[in-house]
Amino acid sequence: MSSTYHQIPSLVYQRDVLPQPVTALSFDPVSDILWSGTNSGYVCANYTPRGLRGVHYPVGGHLAVKKISATDTNVIACGVAGEGIGAWGKGGVNAWYFKPGNQITTFSDKPTNASTIAVSTGASELIFLNAQTGSVLRRTQVPSILTHLHFTASQSYLVSGDADGWIRLHDPREATTRSHGSNAIKAHLSGIQGIEATSTLLYTIGLGIRQGRPYPDPLVKIYDLRTLKALPPIPFSTGPAFITRFPNRPSTLAITSNQGLVQIVDSSNPASNEFHQLDAPSFISSVAASPTGAYMAFGDSDGAIHLLSAAEDEAMLPFNGFEGKPLDWPDAPDALPDVNWTKSTPLSTIGMPYYDSLLLSSWSKDFVPSNMYFPPPTKIPQQVLSSIKVNDSIAYATLPKELRGRRNVVATAPRKSGGRFRSGRTRYNDSEPVTPTYEYNPEVIPKCYRKVEIEYSKFGVEDFDFGFYNRTSFSGLETHILNSYTNPLVQVMHYTLPIRRLAKSHITTDCPREHCLLCELGFVTRMLEDAHGTNCQASNFCKTVGVLAQMHNAIELIDYGRESTELNYAHMIQIFHRFLIDHLSSEGNTFPHNPVLLPNLGPADVLSPAPAPITQLLGIDAKNVIVCQSCHAVREKENMTHLVDLTYPVRRLPTNDPAHETDFTSILRNSLLRQTTHKATCQTCKQFATFESRRSIRSRDLPPLLAVNAACHNEDTHKFWRDQRRTTFLKPRIELRGHIDGMDDPETVVYELRAMVVQVVEKDAHSHLVGIVKVPEAEESDPEPWFIFNDFAVQNITEEEALSIPSSWKVPAIVYLERVDVCQRLDFSGLPDKMDRTILCRDTNIAMNRDPRAIKHEPLRPEELPKPGTLIAIDAEFVSMQQEETEYRSDGTKKVIRPARLSLARVSVLRGDGPKEGVPFIDDHIHTSEIIVDYLTEFSGIKFGDLDPSLSRYTLTPLKVVYKKLRLLVDSGCIFIGHGLSKDFRIINIFVPPEQVIDTVDLYYLENRQRRLSLRFLTWFVLNETIQMDTHDSIEDALSALKLYKVHLQLEAEGTFDKKLEELYREGRQYNFKPPAPPGQQQSTTPAPPSGTASPMPQIAIGRGAFLPQPQFGGPGNHYPLNAVATPPFFPIPGPNHHGYMQHNWRNR
Length: 1149
Fold this sequence. Notes:
Among the domains are: 23-254, 7 Propeller (Methylamine Dehydrogenase, Chain H), CATH 2.130.10; 476-588, no CATH class; 613-621 and 642-649 and 662-674 and 698-824, Alpha-Beta Complex (Cathepsin B, Chain A); 837-1071, 2-Layer Sandwich (Nucleotidyltransferase, domain 5), CATH 3.30.420. Helix content is 15%, strand content 28%. The protein has 18 helices and 52 strands. The strands form twelve sheets. Strands 35, 38, 39, 40, 41, 42, 43 and 44 form an eight-stranded mixed β-sheet that branches. A hairpin with a 5-residue loop joins strand 33 and strand 34.
């Protein structure tokens, strides 16, 4: 055996998708096993130095394993969050489990010649247990909470270390401190991290204090156990984190740092040292030494166990140095009997398993229901029987008022849930009667408030019939994205016209922020404006919410999609409301160049610039007047806030005191002025006095918009909002007055209720949020302009229904009010309203190592800037940011819970006409700061590093810049040509009006065939070109779509397109609508047209060569409409694409 350790291969369990940090290690004294504890609370056996995975069992609790101690017969362990300590057999069967009633802080190893272990608890208690049975032997109180326990080698003392840095010696026979000599010493200033002891020496490591903070003490301190006198310490400059004594060498220690530096030193000869640096990529979290000292194990935070071995390089010694007891492997099942199977072998030969008791499925008749869905009729209520009348053996009675509601409803089998899909629209009757939007029972949630969920067919989310849930001209927002709980607040912001104007104006500016909520809100409002009832999604806005919440450590705002039914979305949306307004205020602030929106502020002044636009709309600029009740000294302090949090009176007793009025106007005014009292020392009278604080603001200074957080978090506050005697708590209009110099301002201002967000609480189900909005666009044409936005379900409701809070299922969260006399006079002329069109002429790039040979686009020249009707071809590639979440049922079917989340990775836009027709002017790869789960290289052509600014060789651009370019093209009235654009636009999160979209997947489509053709097949059959051979390329796909459109125009002009399309479908069926693999694929990217017997395709009178008449491309003047720069002949000669574009794309279209 060599005297120097060397590192051998680490133990890593390859099937761990999410490896857990190794928090505890212990070598088995009698078997070839290394026991490890994980951060998730499991103990695992690792057999032999090769790391064969063995038994795996939990120790209690869901947090890390705190400590493991392997004995001859059992494995003793406890967890950080466990209720006690237990012992398990080597096969994983629990032997005993002790619950002390308090959390266990640590326990000692079992001494060699004893069966006792010591356990300490969080109640400053020391307990001695029988290691074989777990029974309590002795209990005693200790001065402080112990964090380390260790028996000395001679078992004379039990050494303890506490969180204050004290070392104490205890008599294990009586569980008391040592009665003779010194029994305690302050070893470290801030805590003990490790203890080791021999018969006469004690070694400790711990924490010191530097600048008021704990830091690792760079010394291993040594004490004489007989006198507790300090001996010369052992220096360890990097800070010791673990200390381990070798069992076979009592004076030799292994000192380990968190970074993996190991020092092996003999305390009797400190000059003799060995240093080893572990090849560990992460921090060391646990250390153990084998009984013979042949191995040392180090667990790290990535779930790997690193091993140092003192054996020869080729030798493989057992962990404990000898063969030891055999390993406990799981019992192998009996082999199946061999059956010589023939046609005459009876089935009874196979045999059936034997059961000695009845199976659970063997129900008796008493348990089998006679009729599962039709219970016996309910009893007739007594109030009906008491008023019953009989006439000709027919009994009848008047239905009492309290029983009125839905009647004569027959209980039927539960209706099978199923989504409404466009592909199955013929199965539904759209003229079916509409379910009432309300019911007589106020405890029943109306249909328009109930939670709606997107379901997925085999055709994806695009097949879901959103139109069934929204028959209005106002668009809803989809829900299958994270943080979509913000949808109602986004709708409220959109239909609050002043905020909409600010957001739309902000997207025309050159905003430097990569993640900007005001930009994303502006993009969403533009999308909702253009959609006119088509469903939209705020995916970019929701993604920005998650990014900013993490950046500002506002984790409570992130919706992970796995919340429990107890989650209070009303509280969550109110926190996000404040977060959003604060960000809108800072992101839209261009101080000192903010435009003046309020008419009473006058023109902008250099000496007193206007505040941020959001502050002008929502800011409550008041003074806090603080009065000492002892000497009546008055102090004023400026106070600016954007939101009003409602505060409610403590009691609802009848009183004439206006401060205790319980109507909405009084509660809102009292919350606005917010009168409070507190105690402090007055600087004037120098007494500890009571102070009264109250806001002071003039009525005319109240903001144009009042944003109110309802703060309705319990039953008492919700009672204020409930309808009383057919009157609602909320009113369509309210009058507010300010407070000046201790008196009410005689002037009043009128506020109109515009919108609110409410939480719908369903019993035993997840709650959700809906928005109730008075839509400005509907006020002129609709007598009832109130609409409920329940995510993608939108419905018109009455004002009475909007204001009503009938029961506890409807919880108000946010209320928006608009000042009537000011909002109509707001001046938005100072806001920018046009986007800089020259962004299309700039080559935007953030890649540091862009390869000039990879630049395939030419930005537009100023004279080429698009006009309404300009043709452009577009295609995009995407990468996966989140895998699809699927639920598999027991019957073999599956349900998509949440689809895969894709993100834009590359977009290419080509000129559709002009002298440079077919030449790209946008070819941007999109930089993303999120983790990419799958690059989808086969379908996108995107590889690792292509979206990294430091590695990419392509043109790399931030997402927001690319989105602005596309937004500008939409606003300019460009006509987008592409293949399968609906999905591209959905993932890009932009709405393009249908009249601006030409999709070749629809051009080359016969409705009666019910099959859409892929771009690859159309390009091969119509253009006689082969694309998407290895991967896909967005430039190539966009160019192919452009050529297909030009062919469509030519055939339409000749009047032969319909005939050719029929031929295309008829002949495409023979190829299964897929281009055949051409012979010699490596040499030629375009297969020759079929000819003779050597062709794999049959001879057809009207083949690919006859889709267009060839003479049209023969002589001069009969060229294909695309020019020579962008377009090859309609059926080019076999050979590579002469444009030199790489052949890639994302979809197998």
